[in-house]
């Protein structure tokens, strides 16, 4: 009899709401047909997906924008717990894209990583839960107020790509002591977050505005702009003192 009850309970258990797990909030509220359970750890890797499993056979609650991006290339064995940029560079090398082709794929990749940020942290710059999640992922404590949560994020030097990758790879984003240290890392790793992206939500736009606010005023003092073959302008990696760092 107990076995029957357990079977029924397992059958009736709701699948997790991906939107709620990503941002701590759900558009549908209590009427949502999925369960609202928080993830146990902010740095737990995303559920594993076998490289050979077709995307349509994967539980929809586990599919992320980056999964959808790499699923466009069926001959590429995407490592879901690896760095997004590392996987993109590996894809580019395997595909042997020409310069113009690579530029087109880079544009699609930047759109996907922007959607990944929106899915993970939300889009509302006035959401306390979104800022608290940023604080939690960064490991800087979780304040109870919106103002203090914003301040802690703004005072942190972190690569935005590392920050977005963290929940999926399970690796904590590295925090840097200075802007210069972050800039050197960003240039070396070529992890540059798109400065202007049409799909960026309000939260991401606010972070990017903070990052680049003083860039124009200090542009003359910065080194000559550098470019890499990925088509990403590394000159945009500059982040002013006191702001969250760019990738």
UniProtKB/TrEMBL annotation:
The keyword Metal-binding applies. Keywords: Metal-binding, Zinc, Zinc-finger. One of its GO terms (molecular function) is zinc ion binding. Residues 1-21 are annotated as: Disordered. A zinc finger (C3H1-type) spans 11-39. Residues 11-39 form the C3H1-type domain. Residues 1-17 have a biased composition (Basic residues). SUPFAM superfamilies: CCCH zinc finger. InterPro entries: Znf_CCCH, Znf_CCCH_sf. It comes from the Eukaryota. The keyword Lipid metabolism does not apply. This is C3H1-type domain-containing protein. It comes from Dactylonectria macrodidyma.
């Amino acid at each position: 009899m107990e076995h029957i009850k357990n079977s029924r309970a397992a059958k009736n258990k709701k699948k997790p709401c991906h939107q709620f797990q990503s941002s701590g909030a759900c558009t549908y509220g209590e009427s949502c047909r999925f369960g609202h359970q928080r993830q146990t750890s902010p740095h737990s890797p995303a559920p594993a997906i076998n490289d050979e499993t077709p995307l349509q056979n994967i539980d929809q609650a586990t599919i992320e924008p980056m999964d959808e991006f790499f699923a466009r290339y069926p001959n590429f064995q995407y490592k879901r717990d690896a760095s997004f940029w590392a996987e993109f560079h590996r894809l580019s090398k395997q595909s042997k894209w020409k310069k113009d082709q690579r530029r087109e794929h880079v544009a699609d990749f930047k759109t996907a990583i922007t959607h990944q940020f929106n899915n993970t942290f939300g889009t509302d710059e006035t959401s306390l839960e979104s800022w608290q999640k940023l604080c939690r992922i960064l490991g800087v404590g979780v304040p109870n107020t919106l103002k203090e949560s914003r301040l802690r994020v703004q005072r942190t030097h972190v690569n935005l790509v590392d920050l977005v990758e963290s929940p999926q790879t399970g690796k904590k984003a590295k925090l840097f002591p200075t802007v210069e240290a972050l800039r050197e890392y960003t240039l070396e790793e070529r992890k540059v977050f798109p400065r202007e992206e049409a799909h960026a939500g309000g939260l991401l736009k606010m972070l990017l505005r903070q990052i680049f606010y003083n860039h124009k005023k200090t542009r003359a003092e910065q080194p000559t702009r550098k470019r890499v073959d990925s088509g990403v302008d590394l000159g945009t990696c500059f982040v002013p003192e006191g702001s969250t760092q760019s990738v």
